[in-house]
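User: Before I run my own analysis I want an independent prediction to cross-check against. Here's the chain; please return only the structure tokens and, at the end, one sentence I can use as a sanity check.
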Amino acid sequence: MAIWPLLRLVLDGLQKLVGDPTAVASTILLCNSPARFHLRRLLEPFLPRVVVLSPTEIPPGISVQSLGVVR
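Assistant: Structure tokens:
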């Protein structure tokens, strides 16, 4: 399966932020609502355990630690 250049950038960016490939698999990505569904579908074949959430899906009182921004 060929990987689109933009998808490759996202996958490489996640790898740089998280480091260990097994840690990438347990990473939670925050993404704005309209793009969340599409990002999840693009990542699913490569990182099936990655969770993609919208910031509005995080309950109040839950502490979030940012590792960085994938650009």
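Sanity check: Strands lie at 28-30, 51-53.
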